[in-house]
């Protein structure tokens, strides 16, 4: 079962973007429009009318298995003794999850959010293949804008400078986020 759940992560991003754009979100023969047609709704051009939603759905589909593996590692690292102690103290499943398991998963959740945010900010392939940054610039992000400046605007110098600034900003934000995560781990170990 785990292998089936991990499968979207094993698909190349370009193939995943094309799968969503052509097979699922196509306004004429896409599977999503066929499904909503069964309940009487008209076809929707998903990548033109809802470009950010379309890209986010494809990215979530592709990266959910990775996040699932991170959280599974967190769940497997939880001590059975703590869960047994909560059960003996009279905590039900909901209270055990809220007050024991969820605080234990905090580090894993923060790491998942950090890695997911870095990936979403640096996404290029899904934007290029699904919406081409459009309509207009509705779904363009910084890497796509750098591509446009370099290869469509022929301004290699400015795009190179923007790329360097993007990498530096990503490193700074990642370091700040990692410091917060490590600070929470250190405070957890001391208490």
Q: What does it look like?
A:
The chain is mostly helical. It is built from eleven helices and no strands. The chain has helices spanning 2-10, 13-24, 31-38, 46-49, 51-77, 80-88, 93-104, 106-121, 125-130, 142-152, 156-190. It is 78% helix and 0% strand. The longest helix has 35 residues, at 156-190. Helix 1 (2-10) crosses helix 5 and helix 10 (142-152) packs antiparallel against helix 11. The chain has one domain (2-190): MetI-like (MetI-like fold, Orthogonal Bundle).
What percentage of amino acids are in beta strands?
under 5%
Weakly predicted, low-confidence segments? none
Radius of gyration: 21 Å
What is the straight-line distance between the termini? Answer: 38 Å
Structural class call reads mainly alpha
Number of domains: 1
User: What is the total tally of β strands?
Assistant: 0
CATH top level label: Mainly Alpha
CATH superfamily: MetI-like
Topology as a string of helices (H) and strands (E):
HHHHHHHHHHH
Query: In DSSP terms, counting alpha (H) and pi (I) runs of 4 or more, how many helices?
Result: 11
* CATH topology-level fold name: MetI-like fold
| 3D shape | flat
Sheet with the most strands, sense and barrel status: none
Can you give the helix content as a percent range? over 70%
CATH architecture: Orthogonal Bundle
Mean pLDDT: 90
């Amino acid at each position: 079962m785990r292998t089936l759940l991990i499968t979207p992560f094993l698909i190349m991003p370009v193939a995943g973007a094309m799968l969503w754009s052509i097979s699922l979100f196509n306004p004429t023969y896409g599977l999503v429009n066929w499904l909503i047609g069964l309940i009487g709704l008209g076809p929707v051009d998903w990548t033109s009318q809802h470009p950010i939603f379309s890209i986010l759905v494809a990215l979530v589909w592709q990266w959910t298995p990775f996040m699932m593996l991170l959280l599974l590692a967190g769940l497997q690292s939880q001590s059975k003794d703590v869960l047994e102690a909560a059960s003996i103290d009279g905590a039900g499943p909901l209270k055990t999850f809220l007050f024991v398991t969820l605080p234990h998963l905090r580090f894993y959740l923060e790491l998942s959010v950090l890695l997911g945010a870095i990936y979403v900010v640096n996404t290029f392939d899904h934007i290029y293949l699904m919406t081409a940054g459009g309509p207009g610039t509705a779904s363009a992000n910084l890497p796509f804008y750098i591509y446009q400046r370099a290869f469509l605007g022929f301004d290699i110098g400015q795009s190179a400078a923007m790329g360097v600034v993007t990498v530096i900003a990503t490193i700074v934000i990642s370091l700040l986020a990692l410091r917060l995560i490590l600070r929470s781990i250190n405070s957890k170990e001391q208490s």
